[in-house]
Specification:
alpha/beta, Rossmann fold, DNA polymerase, domain 1, 2 domains, 6-stranded parallel β-sheet, 9 helices, 41% helix, binds 6-O-phosphono-beta-D-glucopyranose, binds magnesium ion
Length: 229
């Protein structure tokens, strides 16, 4: 039986639905190249760093850009994204999250945020959530994008908890793969009918969920599986 000591949360799509704002900003950029960017396209962008997203987009639209142009395009997308999120308030925190993390902390659990986003601090500030995390690792602290495990390993390190005692909450396939590469247990956030490959359990969200109930439902193998992607 595994003893979970730390709970590591992705931000976009787990704590708050910022995926819709990322989508709108990429769609606006794609439209400049007469490309109709769909929700399905956006799935490939979840959990992926800004520059990696731009590289995927350039393939989708069939264009290649010089480094200078890439930076300019990524900055433009980010300016729009910031414009969309700047009016966000704490009412946009996904239902049940505050209750869930509060319960973890009351029981002495450690909590971290591990996000690919370079805007994580801004989002946490808008949502007034900073005080709920013992550690925050964002896109500014890492140089390798999910599915690389770096962001989760750094979070565990900052919490001082062994990776085998960490439980990761993720809504993106790249994020589940990253956590599995880190040999951590995973909760996939999303629809049961559309499971994330390799997630130890799927949950639609935090509403009505208690950490105790979740741990009871997880059937922990002795060592977390490493995914073979
Ligand atoms: C991730 C999102 O959390 O952060 C991705 O799921 C996004 O869609 C990535 O591209 C980088 O975000 P930002 O805010 O640094 O552009
Ligand atoms: Mg996410």
């Amino acid at each position: 039986m595994c003893n979970i000591e730390a709970y590591i949360f992705d931000l976009d799509g787990v704590v708050v639905d910022t995926a819709k704002y990322h989508y709108l900003a990429w769609k606006r950029l794609a439209a400049e190249f007469e490309y109709h960017f769909t929700q399905e396209d956006n799935e490939q962008f979840k959990g992926v760093s800004r520059m990696d997203c731009l590289n995927i987009l350039s393939k989708m639209i069939g264009r290649s850009f010089e480094e200078r142009e890439k930076i300019e395009l990524a900055d433009r997308k980010n300016d729009w994204y910031i414009e969309y999120i700047k009016n966000m308030g704490k009412d946009e925190v996904l239902p049940g999250f505050v209750e869930f993390i509060t319960e973890i902390r009351k029981a002495g659990g450690k909590t971290a945020l591990a996000s690919a986003s370079k805007n994580a601090a801004l989002v946490l500030e808008r949502l007034e959530l900073g005080r709920y995390f013992h550690a925050v690792v964002d896109g500014n602290a890492v140089n390798k994008s999910k599915p690389d495990p770096q962001v989760f390993l750094l979070a565990a390190d900052r919490l001082g908890v062994a990776k085998e005692k960490c439980l990761v909450f993720e809504d993106a396939q790249a994020g589940i793969d990253a956590a599995k590469h880190a040999r951590m247990y995973t909760v996939g956030i999303g629809r049961q009918e559309n499971p994330l490959r390799g997630a130890d359990i799927m949950k639609p969200g935090f509403e009505g969920l208690s950490p105790e109930q979740l741990l009871g439902e997880l059937d922990f193998p002795d060592t977390p599986e490493v995914c073979n992607v």
